[in-house]
Structures are given as C-alpha cells and as structure tokens.
Amino acid sequence: MIYIGIFVLVYNKGYQEFDDVLASVSTKVKGYSFANKTIAGDFPGIWDVADYTVPPQENNAIFVTTNAILTYDQEQTKCPEAVSAKDFCNNDEDCAPMTTKAGGNGVRTGKCVNSSQSENKVCEIYSWCPLENDTLTGTPLLTSAENFTLFVKNNILFPKFGVSRKNVPPNLTCQYDAINNTLCPVFRLGTLKDVVRAGGIASDAQRFLDRGIKTDMTTSVETTALIASQPANSGKPHSLESEY
What we know:
Helix content: 10-25%
Structural class: alpha+beta
Subcellular location: Endomembrane system
Main location: membrane
Protein name: P2RX4
Radius of gyration: 28 Å
Shape: elongated
Order of helices and strands: HEEEHEEEEEEHHEE
Keywords: Ion channel, Ion transport, Ligand-gated ion channel, Membrane, Transmembrane, Transmembrane helix, Transport
Number of helices: 4
C-alpha cells in the first residue's frame, strides 16, 4: 500500500489538480534602415518600423518589408502600356479604343505609340501613370534588415489557480544566441535567416523566415520544493526551430 501510495502521489503526481492553459503571443520588431529611396519620395532617407512593418499587427504573424517597388507621382492620365503586358501594335487600328487586354494595366485609348521600354510600339492606355516597374533588383532595398530585432513575448495563464507565467526575464537586455543565450526571446532577423539555412532550405534564406517560429514552453507551478524541478516563478522557452 505504501508503494502504491508513493507511485500514485509522487511519480504520477496524483495529488495535483489540473487546468487548461490559456496562452497569448505578441511580437514587436525594432530597427532602422537607411536606403536610397523612401516611401515619401525618390531620395535617401530612414525607414523605421512604421514603414517596413505592414500591417502593424497580424494574428500570430509578422510581415517585415525587406524590398519594395516604389512608384512616385502617379496620376490618372494616359501613358504607353508596359512591355510586360505584350500589347504590341503597328498602327492605331491594332488598339481598339475602350478595350482592355488580359494582364494589361488599363483601358486602351485607341492610339499606337512608342514605348519607353522597347523599340516596339505599344497601345496607349488610360491608367495610373507612370506605371509600376515590377522588376526587382538583386540587392534588397533595406540592406540592413538583417539587423532588425524581433521580440516574441509569450504569456500563459492557469485561470483555475490564478497563476501566470511569461518568457520575459527581468531587465531584458539580451539577444538570442544559439550557443550562449538560447533562452532570450529577442531575435536578430539575420539569425532567423540562418536557422532557415541550417534547415537545408538555402533558397528560402533570401526571403528570411516565411514559415514560422515554434517555441516550447516548460514551466512549473508547484510550490513543494521536494517535487518542483524549477523555481515556482519560472517559465522558459527551451527550444527554437523554424517550422516547415
């Protein structure tokens, strides 16, 4: 009987009550980048978190801009169709007015005009002009985005017992390091990119982490020093991996 009592109470923790856990995760990105173009205009300037985090909040997700196609001073007027639409012509008869082309950017005016992108003529269109140039360069606009930091805050609550835990240590000044600081919830984006590359998907590294972050939270709410494996106020994530 003593053996059964010890097995049930201690090993299987039969003395415990159980409760469903409630959890919430919030994220915050910080950092600045100097680029040769800004949202305000075609001139050098600073990008801050309000510029590159769009939308400001998402459900269980973040979006950080690392590259952008910026088209300035657009207005509704007439301009040559983009070469990418392949709306080529030889004369006005090839551009029936008030018609459109699948994949085009506007409504034809009825004129065949010179293209600013090619020796071939194209149909003129009513549209927002100048048209966007969708060609991305090999170098991202925000070259210092790898140094932005992502703070992942994880809160858990056991409502039955009124006990809450979080993964934020006091006086948070750390930054995650796979060897020396594995429990810090502040990640350099370049480090997350390295996690993706280490997973054997080098092509995804150029897009940083577009899959996910999975944290494993281990916490103890026990108050009995003999049984508890961690201090009663502890709550620490102990792994980081990119989720595929």
